[in-house]
């Protein structure tokens, strides 16, 4: 591939690119929530524009026997090809800042790159949770399981009850292991209260049941869901992982773009249980 | 009729073929003359044509085309006066062709370029007319006068191979300088091409001086589009010719020719070093800009 990112044209040294890349990755890692529980598929390559997603049928039993008895194959309800969405944010390094760094052998201030990386990471989570025009996100997946949110906000113990209810529903439907509770910062805060006379915080009790708890500002205050997050149920297909390209000069300044391409693949929507 | 970009590129390449022919034809005519102000004046015109060749190539690359290395047929006559007449005709043909192209092309920048060139060609025509009169007034030297004894076959072979090599690398370095997107490398390639033109002149004059036939023909020219591959080919060419010149030095009897070949050989060693440095810088520059389009950057955050 020729230099897709046009980095050779940029007024940055090798060391500066390494610093910029590290900063972008560090900010993205601190910000992203979806990747804390989703299995990643890829990277498929920057030029890949569509990815297949198999909508799988229900859970069926395997064949058990000495003779290799016949059993149903995993039912492939349908195969779709969904587009990878590109998320991007441009930033500008001003010539005065570059000149200052060169004159005084100082470091280039990459805060605009950090801000762009933050914006891209937040947009990734917004896409995963809320979806976009053609692709519903995790909160709106058609065929998802639901349980009531209940008195989570006001009553100690209600959150644990709601999570137990969701867990029971998912396990009863055959979904197992790798559960993640994804919730707004507001609801997460509410878990840090003692559950009645147990003397134990609700969050500690929930963690006994669900190892991965992911609070995120990308969800609205009363939004939460429990998900059986194995790749058999859903995953995140990455075309190009978050990266920075040089776009070229704008007058004396220099324009860059932080971007990525991705698609959420929900194969068994029933593995998602939203609290509503 | 609408003129497309491809039409314009074709016209400019036709102009390049003419300029290429003019450079070689004028140099051959100049080398055939004894040293005086007249061949120096003709060589100055040939340098003008080299500039035109360069400008046309740049314009073609800017339009997204590929500059040609073909050349229109070179013509030579038996006398200097007849050669000057052929050069007047070459200028007449060039002026007519440029005027056709100026009329056909709408782009004001290209029109200006061609008008600038055609003004030069008109001036050249006047100079060649004047030179034709001057050389007609002088007695034409007979071939026998120019070379009283038969030339040394070793010298003929050395000079013929040298001329062929120098002409080939001039075209190769110029073509690379036209096509590479790296301005600093382009400039350096052009500088070395100019140095090779000097070598070509020295060798051709030496060949004419010993009464040998001066033929300016080329071998294969590397036309890679990748700058690293171009430089690698240029380094190869320099190393090969350095070896050839070094081997020839042991066979040459004439001390003057020996000194000339040694001087050119040392220049080629320098060119090799220049191209090697450029290639190294280019490779460092590509290291300078890591391009992680493969593999995860952020990756999974699952614990």
Break the fold down into its secondary structure elements and pairings.
The complex is a heterodimer of chains A (276) and B (303).
Chain A: H1 14-31, E1 40-41, E2 50-56, E3 76-83, E4 85-93, H2 95-103, H3 111-130, E5 145-147, H4 158-172, E6 179-184, H5 185-190, H6 202-209, E7 212-216, E8 224-228, E9 234-250, E10 253-266, E11 272-275
Parallel strand pairs in A: 1-9, 5-11, 6-7
Antiparallel strand pairs in A: 2-3, 4-10, 6-8, 8-11, 9-10
Chain B: H1 5-31, H2 37-62, H3 80-104, H4 108-137, H5 143-146, H6 153-179, H7 183-209, H8 227-249, H9 255-288
Helix pairs in contact in B: 1-2, 1-3, 2-4, 2-6, 3-4, 6-7, 6-8, 7-9, 8-9
The outline of chain B comes out as flat
> What does the oligomeric state look like here?
heterodimer
What is the chain-wise order of helices and strands of chain B? HHHHHHHHH
State the end-to-end CA separation of chain A: 47 Å
Compute the CA-based radius of gyration of chain B: 23 Å
Q: Poorly predicted ranges of chain A (pLDDT <50, ≥5 residues)?
A: none
Number of H- or I-type helical stretches of chain B? 9
C-alpha end-to-end distance of chain B: 68 Å
Low-confidence stretches of chain B: none
Residue share in β-strands of chain B: under 5%
What is the gist of this entry?
The complex is a heterodimer of chains A (276) and B (303). By secondary structure, chain A is of the alpha/beta class.
Keywords:
heterodimer, A: five-stranded mixed β-sheet, four-stranded mixed β-sheet, 6 helices, 29% strand, globular, B: 303 residues, mainly alpha
Give your account of this protein's structure.
The complex is a heterodimer of chains A (276) and B (303). Helix content of chain A is 28%, strand content 29%. Chain A is an alpha/beta fold and 276 residues long. In chain A, β9 and β10 form a beta hairpin. In chain A, α1 (14-31) packs parallel to α3 (111-130). The longest helix of chain A is centred in the middle third of the chain and has 20 residues, at 111-130. The radius of gyration of chain A is 23 Å and the shape is globular. With 303 residues, chain B is mainly α. Chain B is 74% helix and 0% strand. Chain B has 9 helices and no strands. In chain B, α3 (80-104) runs antiparallel to α4 (108-137), α6 packs antiparallel against α8 (227-249) and α7 (183-209) packs antiparallel against α9. Chain B is flat. The relative contact order of chain B is 0.10. The model of chain B has no long low-confidence stretch (mean pLDDT 90). Classes of the chains: A alpha/beta (276), B mainly alpha (303). The A-B interface holds A 1, 3-5, 7-8, 10, 12-14, 17-18, 21, 24-25, 28-29, 32, 35-40, 42-43, 45-46, 212, 238, 240-243 and B 285-303.
């Amino acid at each position: 591939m020729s230099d897709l990112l046009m980095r050779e044209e940029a007024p940055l040294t090798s060391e500066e690119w390494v610093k910029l890349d590290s900063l972008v990755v560090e900010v993205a890692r601190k910000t992203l929530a979806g990747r804390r529980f989703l299995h990643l598929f890829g990277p498929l390559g920057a030029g890949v524009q569509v990815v297949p997603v198999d909508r799988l049928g229900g859970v069926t039993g395997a064949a058990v026997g000495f003779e290799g008895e016949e059993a149903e194959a995993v039912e492939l309800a349908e195969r779709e090809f969904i587009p990878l969405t590109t998320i991007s944010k441009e930033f500008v390094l001003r010539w005065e800042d570059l000149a200052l760094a060169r004159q005084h052998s100082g470091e280039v201030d990459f805060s605009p790159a950090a801000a762009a990386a933050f914006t891209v990471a937040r947009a990734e989570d917004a896409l995963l949770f809320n979806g976009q025009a053609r692709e519903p996100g995790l909160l709106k997946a058609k065929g998802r399981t639901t349980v009531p949110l209940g008195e989570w906000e006001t009553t100690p113990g209600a959150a644990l009850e709601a999570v137990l209810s969701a867990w029971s529903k998912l396990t009863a439907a055959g979904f197992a292991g790798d559960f993640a509770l994804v919730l707004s910062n507001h609801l997460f805060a509410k878990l840090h209260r003692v559950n009645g006379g147990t003397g134990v915080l609700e969050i500690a009790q929930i963690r006994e049941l669900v190892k991965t708890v992911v609070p995120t500002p990308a969800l609205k205050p009363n939004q939460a869901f429990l998900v059986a997050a194995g790749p058999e149920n859903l995953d995140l297909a990455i075309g190009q992982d978050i990266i920075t390209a040089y776009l070229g000069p704008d007058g004396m300044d220099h324009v860059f773009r932080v971007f990525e391409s991705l698609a959420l693949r929900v194969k068994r929507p029933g593995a998602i249980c939203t609290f509503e | 009729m609408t003129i497309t970009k491809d039409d314009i590129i074709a016209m400019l390449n036709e102009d390049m073929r003419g300029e290429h022919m003019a450079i070689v034809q004028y140099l051959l005519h100049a080398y055939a003359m004894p040293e005086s102000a007249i061949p120096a004046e003709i060589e100055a015109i040939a340098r003008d044509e080299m500039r035109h060749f360069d400008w046309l190539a740049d314009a073609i690359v800017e339009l997204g085309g590929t500059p040609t290395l073909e050349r229109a047929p070179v013509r030579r006559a038996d006398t200097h006066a007849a050669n000057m007449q052929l050069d007047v005709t070459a200028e007449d043909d060039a002026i007519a062709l440029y005027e056709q192209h100026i009329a056909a092309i709408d782009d004001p920048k290209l029109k200006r370029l061609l008008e600038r060139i055609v003004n030069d060609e008109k001036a050249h025509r006047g100079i060649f007319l004047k030179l034709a009169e001057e050389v007609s007034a002088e007695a034409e030297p007979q071939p026998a006068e120019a070379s009283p004894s038969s030339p040394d076959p070793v010298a003929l072979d050395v000079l013929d191979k040298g001329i062929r090599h120098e002409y080939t690398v001039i075209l190769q370095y110029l073509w690379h300088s036209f096509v590479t997107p790296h301005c600093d490398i382009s400039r350096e390639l052009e500088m070395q091409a100019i140095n090779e033109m000097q070598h070509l002149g020295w060798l051709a004059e030496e060949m004419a001086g010993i009464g040998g036939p001066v033929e300016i023909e080329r071998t294969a020219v590397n036309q890679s589009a990748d700058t690293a591959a171009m430089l690698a080919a240029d380094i190869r060419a320099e190393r090969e010719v350095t070896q050839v010149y070094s081997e020839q030095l042991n066979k040459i009897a004439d001390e003057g020719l020996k000194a000339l070949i040694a001087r050119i050989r040392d220049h080629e060693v320098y060119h090799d070093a220049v191209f090697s440095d450029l290639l190294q810088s280019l490779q460092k520059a590509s290291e300078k800009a890591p391009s992680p389009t493969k593999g995860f950057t952020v990756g999974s955050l699952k614990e």
